[in-house]
Amino acid sequence: MLLNTYEPWKFAFSQETDFENIKKDSFGIIGVPFDSTTSYHSGSRLGPIVVREASYGFENYNINFNTSIDATFYDFGDVNVVPGNCEATCNIVEDTVNELLDLKLKPITIGGEHSASIGVIKALSEKYGNLTVVHLDAHRDLAFDFIGEKYSHATVMRRAHEFGVDLVQIGIRSSSVEEEEFVKSTYNIQTFKNKDVHRHMDAVEYYLTTIDTPVYLSIDMDVFDPAIAPAVGNPTPGGLFTSEVENVIQSLSYKNVVGMDVVETATDKLGENTAVCAAKIICDFLSLINKK
């Protein structure tokens, strides 16, 4: 890279990629520009572009946590998706994440719709066996199928549960009767609804400290209130504040977090609120994750 230039197609502060000298136990960013199962507001296929661009608006230093982004991470660009074919795209994402794991890297995925997480979680569940997915979302995403499709943004966590992971769902405020019945029929899905977070954040933080397995963090941007992050696939009033999501990340920074995703940023506008918020969450994660 030339002096005094920057690469807005890569996340800010990412290291130069030299495959001969990849640092083990670091992070690898991939984008998944896919939104073919979107049921309301489309556009999340452009999420990886706008989130990366927004990352250049932040300092390396985090004043709230008194930390800096000193985690080593690389940005490998976007996955070659198959528009219109969610299952094929999930398989490609899985293969890509396995390549990262072979390099001893932990995945950070920027979406794109939430279905991208299926491939990531499958790869990680096979590697780690016992895995807890901490899922921040307005919706449960536990439908067995959605309009006849098993691979969809609305079925992500049902597929993940089938892989044998434990689920901790935070910020939930929209669900179906069928999803609620499924949750009641299982033993390994813990729920903190939006009002639980607003009123009892200490209880959420305490629960997260009790997790004793590797953790995957999945953040659907619609977990935020639409006043904060309006450009998402399915905006739902009553959402979380940025500080509450930061508290979740801070609690998990003491755990073995083996990957994360930030998905469902659905805008083509540079500097749009949702893209800026998504980039900030990734920066928060990277500034906290090695502070144990």
Explained architecture:
By secondary structure, this protein is α/β, with parallel strands linked by helices. The protein has one domain: Ureohydrolase domain (Arginase, Chain A, 3-Layer(aba) Sandwich). 33% of the residues lie in helices and 18% in strands. It contains nine helices and ten strands. The protein has helices at 47-54, 86-102, 116-128, 156-162, 177-184, 194-199, 201-209, 242-252, 273-288, and strands spanning 26-32, 61-62, 67-68, 73-78, 105-111, 132-136, 166-172, 189-193, 215-220, 257-263. The strands form two sheets. The protein has an eight-stranded parallel sheet with strand order 4-1-5-10-9-6-7-8, sandwiched between helices. Strands 2-3 form a two-stranded antiparallel ribbon. Helix 5 (177-184) links the parallel strand 7 and strand 8 (189-193). Helix 3 runs parallel beside helix 4 and helix 7 packs parallel to helix 8. The radius of gyration is 17 Å and the shape is globular. It starts with 25 loop residues before the first strand and ends with a helix. The mean pLDDT is 95.
Short description:
The protein has one domain: 3-Layer(aba) Sandwich (Arginase, Chain A).
Number of strands: 10
Q: Number of folding domains?
A: 1
Shape from CA axes?
globular
Helical run tally: 9
Give the helix level as a range of percent.
25-40%
Strand content: 15-25%
Q: What is the CATH topology descriptor? A: Arginase, Chain A
CATH superfamily: Ureohydrolase domain
Major sheet summary line: 8 strands, parallel
- The parts where pLDDT drops under 50 for at least 5 residues are none
Highest CATH level, the class: Alpha Beta
The largest beta-sheet arranges its strands as 4-1-5-10-9-6-7-8
What class would the helix/strand composition place it in? alpha/beta
Element pattern in H and E: EHEEEHEHEHEHEHHEHEH
Radius of gyration: 17 Å
